[in-house]
Amino acid sequence: MIREMTKSDFEAFWPCFETVIQAQETYAFDPKMSFEEAYELWCIMPMKTFVFEENQQILGSYYIKPNAMGPGNHVCNCGYMVTEAARGKGIAKRLCEHSQDQAMTLGFEAMQFNAVVSSNEVAVQLWQKLGFKIIGTIPRAYRHGKLGHVDSYIMYKALRA
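Predicted structure:
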């Protein structure tokens, strides 16, 4: 089930969030970020944040927000995280499909991912299967925790003509 995230949901999801940012492999978030800073970033600042829950366990989450303000606010941005134990089970795909439906409901015309780490091949391939195109490469934009400097991609998908 996918539903809006509560603060208690984020508390349950925090170990996953903390593990992801500390790995420094996919998100350009401060690996020393506190729970409150993370909650603000993931749940308060975006328009909406959702969880994927199964058997009373939070297995994944995403947020949706405008990618820019004013004349650019018709394009949205999302971020996704899935717990390590739940990876490879189609949850990210379901979250992304849900986010596209939400984006259209909220009036967005397109979705853009600003910094998909190029070494995150599973995510890059999934986003491409779901219709996203790499529209730009930022050379050496991400300091990967294991690989050093790697490229980041800007990925985009029109949701409406």
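Summary: The mean pLDDT is 96.
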